[in-house]
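Observation: inputs received (chain + N-carbamoyl-L-aspartate).
Thought: call the complex predictor directly.
Action: predict_structure
Action Input:
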Amino acid sequence: MIDVGDLSRAEWEHLYATCSDIIDHPADYLNACRGKVAASLFYEPSTRTNFSFQAAMQRVGGTVFGFSDPNATSVAKGETLKDTVKIVSAYADVLVIRSPKEGAAKAAALYSDVPVINAGDGGHMHPTQTMADLTTITRLRGQVDGLSIGLCGDLKNGRTVHSLIKALAKFEGVKFYLISPRELAVPDYIRAFMQAHDMRTVEVTGLEPVIPQLDVLYMTRIQRERFVDPLEYERNKGVYILTRRKLLRAKKDLLVMHPLPRVDEIALDVDDDPRAVYFAQARFGMFARMALLTDLANQPRTAPPSVEIGTMPLCTNPNCITQTERYLPPLVKQSENADCCGFCDGSL
Ligand code: NCD
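Observation:
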């Protein structure tokens, strides 16, 4: 599970059916991963995603080992990602990886004998958060098709937004309101993707004027750690703050969502509004991960095909995994008629 865009709608429906069944009948899944072991490689800080995977694996009867501080592992001795993955995939049945480098999960999957789950790769993708988001919308609104969805905040660096947009291309009649400062608008590859998939999109800089149109308002944090220029962060921090007053004109059945952690973009007085579903969303995320682990941890082991040894990164994105793991093969993919990096989707 590297990029949620790789899932067909039917595959998503299948995962969602399992997830829904787990929510309704958790006791039926107590042994779904009995004897299975997940390895959790967290190269970047995390509370929700890390704990959520651990809780999910334990609730389906499996166990987890791993690290949340790479400095305490052989990574600190200079071990490559390839070697860490080779070793860890020899010990585990499924591998969960989070990294500040874009394309890291794709790189891990090239060398792993067991399924790899992308738990967030830099500003690129976060597919299991998207599973949490789609589960929340489907459980609370009945369906995703036909909804008006506002994505607000740091749409440039927010990986949860990129993943969610890719997944929503599989649904019918969704209308998007992309709400961000101009300099934090969605990256080019996401804009090209939305155009190629005829996704109905309105781009605006103001939140308040569009609130009344929305069925879902997906707030995001300005991603301070991803800014190359600290001044750019200073200019944009605190730009959107959702308050109870701003919700007065919103629909009565709006869903206010947020992948969390929040900084200041949702005022505390919104938490008690019944439309605020972000804490429920985190719990749905755990159930979605239980469904995914139940499927992937039970797959047979298969040695991956050998890949070319690279010498020079093709991609110029400074956050791409190929910049630091120089042996990675020169993967190019065609996306919307342009050549893109096969790891981070950056244009070549
Ligand atoms: C998000 C992430 O890590 O991308 N958090 C999460 O996984 N729930 C959002 C964020 O950090 O802003």
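Thought: report the result.
Final Answer: The mean pLDDT is 95. The CA atoms of residues 156 and 184 lie 5 Å apart.
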